[in-house]
Each structure stands twice: as structure tokens, then as C-alpha cells.
Write a structure and sequence with these properties.
The protein is α/β, with parallel strands linked by helices. Helix content is about 20%, strand content about 30%. Strands 6-5-4-3-2-1-14 form a seven-stranded mixed beta sheet. A seven-stranded mixed beta sheet has the order 7-8-9-10-11-12-13.
């Protein structure tokens, strides 16, 4: 039996978002909806081809600052699991709004890299610490688990792929069958490159035209995409110095910028 894998780009912007507060550049003033970029996040849907096999599984990648806005915009009504790439503010600070889902569904499993799990616990100590008699507000009900190898969610294997986010910290990208999502990185080491072979769809960080110490520039992202050689590559985590239509016109058809609300698909075949 095969499963369809869909990736919904919830957000394709940087930690500032686009438009940037107080900025009067042409991209921030643009009427092109593809230049409206919320903070980077994605929703991976595992869809059984046989309807009798059950409902799709919704796997959220990061709880971005704009999580509530993204959920309302895309009319998402269920989150089955959460996987975190890392603990930077733009990728985790929407976590409190997950309580709307856990109120309806019960506790939700979320998974974080070993180098990020404690940071998430510290930031959201009210949610992950001991219950307090004085906290009568709603709390997200979550099981925070440290990733120590491949995950099995929705009947598929999710493989964590460690890549550097500058000289100090690392992030996890994730491979789900023939699709991989790798954001906030500035290199793809040899072992990660091997894990990214034979992809149909690659999503990868491409911040801006000029170099940056912790993110791929567009030229660097093109080079990495050519090495990985996926059938189709989509750029994400794009800043306000990049106009969507201009960049799309400069790139070949098999490497293109993504935009908020876009859906891309792949197939997971089982023996």
C-alpha cells in the first residue's frame, strides 16, 4: 500500500517575518501575496491511499510565532504530533496556542532534538513543569519527547537529519519518505548529504542573496540543491530583501521559492 505525503508551507519567512515592522522596502510594500511571509513552519500530512485505512495524520513542524494566524488561515482542525527543528524563538513561541488542539484531542506528543528539548522546557516551564495550584489558566497538554533516532508517526518513518545552523548550534531537518524539510542551516555535511539522496521533494533554507553566518544564501542553497539532486527543490526562510516573482524568474523550474499556503506532494511506496 502507498501513502501520499503532502507538505503545506505554513510560513516561509525569517524570524522578522515579511513585511518587516517599520520597513518601507519594495518587498515589504508589495501587493504580491507570495511576498507575505509568516515565520517558518510546515504541516506534513500522511494520507493513506485507501480511505478505509483511516484519516490523514497531521504532523506539525515547529510552532512558529505566527502559529495561531497560520492555523486560522489554513483552517487546520487537528494536530496529531509536533516535531521541532530547534529552539529559536521564531520556531517555538507559538506553542501555547497548541492548547486549543489538546483541549479537544487530549495530550499531543511532541518531539525535539536533544540539544533543544530542555530549552523548550525552560521557556514553557508552566506547561512542562509540575502543576501549580495557582495556575488556573489553560495549559497545552503535551508529552515532550527527546529524539534519539527515527520516529514512527502516521505509519511512516521520520528520519532526523542533523545540520549546522552556524558555528554554535545545530538543527534537525526531517526526511519523510521521498520528501525532506531542512530549514535554518548553512551547510549540509557529508553524512546528512547521504541521508538526503533520492528525494522527490527537498525544502531547504535560502535566506537572501548575500552571505549570512548561520543561513544559506541563495547561491549556496542552489549549490546544495544541485548536490542533493532532488526532483524538485523549494526554498524557504526567505527574507524581505528577496522578491518572490523576481527570484522565481531567476531560478530553473526544478528549484523555486515556496510561499505561505503552498502545498507540495510526494508518494511513499510500501512493499
Amino acid at each position: 500500500m502507498s501513502k501520499s505525503i503532502e507538505l503545506l508551507f505554513l510560513g516561509t519567512g525569517t524570524s522578522h517575518g515579511v513585511p518587516v515592522i517599520g520597513c518601507d522596502c519594495s518587498v515589504c510594500r508589495s501587493d504580491d501575496p507570495r511576498n507575505k511571509r509568516t515565520r517558518s513552519s510546515a504541516l506534513i500530512r500522511i494520507i493513506p491511499d485507501d480511505p478505509a485505512a483511516g484519516n490523514p495524520t497531521n504532523i506539525l513542524v515547529d510552532t512558529a510565532i505566527d502559529f495561531r494566524q497560520q492555523m486560522l488561515r489554513e483552517r487546520i482542525d487537528r494536530i496529531d504530533a509536533i516535531i521541532y527543528t530547534h529552539h529559536h524563538a521564531d520556531h517555538i513561541l507559538g506553542l501555547d496556542d497548541v492548547r486549543v488542539f489538546s483541549d479537544r484531542q487530549g495530550r499531543i506528543d511532541c518531539y525535539a532534538p536533544p540539544f533543544s528539548a530542555q530549552r523548550i522546557r525552560d521557556v514553557f516551564s508552566y506547561a512542562f513543569g509540575s502543576p501549580s495550584r495557582n495556575n488556573w489558566g489553560g495549559l497545552p497538554q503535551l508529552n515532550l519527547r527527546v529524539i534519539d533516532g527515527p520516529l514512527q508517526i502516521g505509519g511512516v518513518s521520520i528520519i532526523p537529519i542533523k545540520v549546522p545552523h552556524g558555528p554554535v548550534i545545530s538543527v534537525y531537518g526531517y526526511r519523510v519518505g521521498p520528501l525532506a524539510y531542512v530549514t535554518d542551516c548553512n551547510a549540509v555535511p557529508d553524512d546528512a548529504m547521504e541521508q538526503l539522496r533520492d528525494l522527490d521533494v527537498l525544502v531547504i533554507d535560502a535566506l537572501r542573496y548575500t552571505p549570512h553566518p548561520t543561513h544559506f544564501s541563495i547561491s549556496e542553497a542552489i549549490s546544495a540543491a544541485r548536490q542533493i539532486n532532488a526532483r524538485q527543490t523549494w526554498f524557504t526562510h526567505i527574507c524581505h530583501r528577496v522578491d518572490h516573482a523576481t527570484l522565481a524568474g531567476e531560478l530553473p523550474p526544478d528549484i523555486q521559492p515556496a510561499y505561505d499556503g503552498q502545498v507540495v506532494k510526494a508518494e511513499e511506496n510500501e512493499e
